[in-house]
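Example 9 (inverse folding). The structure is encoded as follows.
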Protein backbone atom coordinates (compact mmCIF):
# COMPACT_ATOMS: atom_id res chain seq x y z
CA UNK A 1 0.00 0.00 0.00
CA UNK A 2 2.78 2.45 0.89
CA UNK A 3 4.84 1.72 -2.22
CA UNK A 4 1.88 1.96 -4.61
CA UNK A 5 0.78 5.22 -2.97
CA UNK A 6 4.26 6.68 -3.47
CA UNK A 7 4.53 5.39 -7.03
CA UNK A 8 1.22 7.08 -7.94
CA UNK A 9 2.26 10.38 -6.34
CA UNK A 10 5.66 10.47 -8.03
CA UNK A 11 4.22 9.47 -11.39
CA UNK A 12 1.40 12.04 -11.22
CA UNK A 13 3.54 14.99 -10.06
CA UNK A 14 6.93 13.92 -11.47
CA UNK A 15 8.75 14.56 -8.18
CA UNK A 16 9.50 12.94 -4.86
CA UNK A 17 10.13 16.28 -3.12
CA UNK A 18 7.77 16.37 -0.13
CA UNK A 19 7.51 20.18 -0.24
CA UNK A 20 6.44 20.20 -3.89
CA UNK A 21 4.03 17.30 -3.31
CA UNK A 22 2.43 19.08 -0.35
CA UNK A 23 1.92 22.18 -2.50
CA UNK A 24 0.43 20.14 -5.37
CA UNK A 25 -1.90 18.39 -2.91
CA UNK A 26 -3.04 21.73 -1.45
CA UNK A 27 -1.55 21.02 1.95
CA UNK A 28 -0.41 24.17 3.69
CA UNK A 29 3.13 23.83 5.09
CA UNK A 30 4.04 26.20 7.91
CA UNK A 31 7.30 26.63 9.78
CA UNK A 32 6.69 27.28 13.46
CA UNK A 33 8.50 27.71 16.71
CA UNK A 34 7.84 24.41 18.44
CA UNK A 35 9.27 22.77 21.54
CA UNK A 36 12.52 20.90 20.81
CA UNK A 37 10.70 17.61 21.41
CA UNK A 38 8.23 18.36 18.57
CA UNK A 39 9.62 18.12 15.06
CA UNK A 40 6.28 18.72 13.40
CA UNK A 41 2.69 17.63 13.12
CA UNK A 42 -0.16 17.07 10.70
CA UNK A 43 -3.61 18.56 11.14
CA UNK A 44 -6.86 17.97 9.32
CA UNK A 45 -9.34 20.68 10.30
CA UNK A 46 -12.57 21.58 8.52
CA UNK A 47 -11.52 19.76 5.37
CA UNK A 48 -8.22 21.67 5.27
CA UNK A 49 -4.85 20.02 5.68
CA UNK A 50 -1.80 21.49 7.38
CA UNK A 51 1.75 20.38 8.05
CA UNK A 52 3.65 22.29 10.73
CA UNK A 53 7.42 21.92 10.83
CA UNK A 54 9.73 23.04 13.61
CA UNK A 55 11.66 25.91 12.07
CA UNK A 56 14.67 25.30 14.35
CA UNK A 57 15.44 21.98 12.61
CA UNK A 58 18.14 21.73 9.95
CA UNK A 59 16.85 21.53 6.37
CA UNK A 60 17.51 17.78 6.03
CA UNK A 61 15.32 17.07 9.06
CA UNK A 62 12.64 19.55 7.89
CA UNK A 63 12.52 17.67 4.59
CA UNK A 64 12.15 14.35 6.40
CA UNK A 65 9.45 15.75 8.70
CA UNK A 66 7.51 17.06 5.71
CA UNK A 67 7.70 13.63 4.07
CA UNK A 68 6.66 11.96 7.35
CA UNK A 69 3.65 14.24 7.79
CA UNK A 70 2.75 13.76 4.13
CA UNK A 71 2.70 10.05 4.98
CA UNK A 72 0.05 10.73 7.63
CA UNK A 73 -2.00 12.61 5.03
CA UNK A 74 -1.77 9.80 2.49
CA UNK A 75 -2.09 6.83 4.87
CA UNK A 76 -4.29 8.08 7.70
CA UNK A 77 -6.78 10.24 5.85
CA UNK A 78 -8.92 12.58 7.90
CA UNK A 79 -7.07 12.02 11.17
CA UNK A 80 -4.65 14.15 13.10
CA UNK A 81 -2.38 12.54 15.69
CA UNK A 82 -4.46 14.06 18.50
CA UNK A 83 -7.66 12.50 17.14
CA UNK A 84 -6.04 9.07 16.86
CA UNK A 85 -4.65 9.23 20.38
CA UNK A 86 -7.82 10.54 22.06
CA UNK A 87 -10.68 8.98 20.09
CA UNK A 88 -9.64 5.53 18.88
CA UNK A 89 -8.17 2.31 20.16
CA UNK A 90 -5.32 2.45 17.63
CA UNK A 91 -1.76 2.59 18.86
CA UNK A 92 -0.22 5.89 17.68
CA UNK A 93 3.16 4.10 17.48
CA UNK A 94 1.88 2.05 14.55
CA UNK A 95 0.91 5.19 12.65
CA UNK A 96 4.29 6.80 13.38
CA UNK A 97 6.14 3.75 12.06
CA UNK A 98 3.99 3.77 8.92
CA UNK A 99 4.68 7.49 8.39
CA UNK A 100 8.43 6.92 8.88
CA UNK A 101 8.36 4.10 6.33
CA UNK A 102 6.44 6.32 3.90
CA UNK A 103 8.96 9.15 4.36
CA UNK A 104 12.01 6.96 3.83
CA UNK A 105 10.55 5.29 0.75
CA UNK A 106 9.39 8.58 -0.73
CA UNK A 107 12.76 10.26 -0.24
CA UNK A 108 14.63 7.26 -1.65
CA UNK A 109 12.21 6.59 -4.49
CA UNK A 110 14.06 5.13 -7.48
CA UNK A 111 17.37 5.21 -5.58
CA UNK A 112 19.41 2.07 -5.17
CA UNK A 113 22.29 0.88 -3.05
CA UNK A 114 25.67 1.12 -4.67
CA UNK A 115 27.80 -2.01 -4.66
CA UNK A 116 28.98 -2.79 -1.10
CA UNK A 117 27.30 0.38 0.24
CA UNK A 118 26.36 0.35 3.91
CA UNK A 119 22.89 1.38 5.05
CA UNK A 120 24.43 4.34 6.88
CA UNK A 121 26.21 5.50 3.73
CA UNK A 122 22.98 5.12 1.72
CA UNK A 123 21.18 7.29 4.30
CA UNK A 124 23.86 9.98 4.17
CA UNK A 125 23.88 9.98 0.37
CA UNK A 126 20.10 10.41 0.28
CA UNK A 127 19.81 12.88 3.20
CA UNK A 128 17.91 10.44 5.40
CA UNK A 129 18.43 11.00 9.15
CA UNK A 130 20.59 8.18 10.49
CA UNK A 131 18.01 7.47 13.20
CA UNK A 132 15.76 6.15 10.41
CA UNK A 133 18.18 3.35 9.42
CA UNK A 134 15.72 0.69 10.59
CA UNK A 135 13.25 1.78 7.89
CA UNK A 136 15.71 1.23 5.03
CA UNK A 137 15.18 -1.96 3.03
CA UNK A 138 18.34 -3.21 1.38
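The amino acid assigned to each position is listed next.
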Amino acid sequence: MIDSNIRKLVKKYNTNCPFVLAEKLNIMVEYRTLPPSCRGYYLYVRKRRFIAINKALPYIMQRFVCAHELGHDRLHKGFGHYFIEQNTLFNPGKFERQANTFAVRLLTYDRHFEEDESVESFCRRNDIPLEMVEYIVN
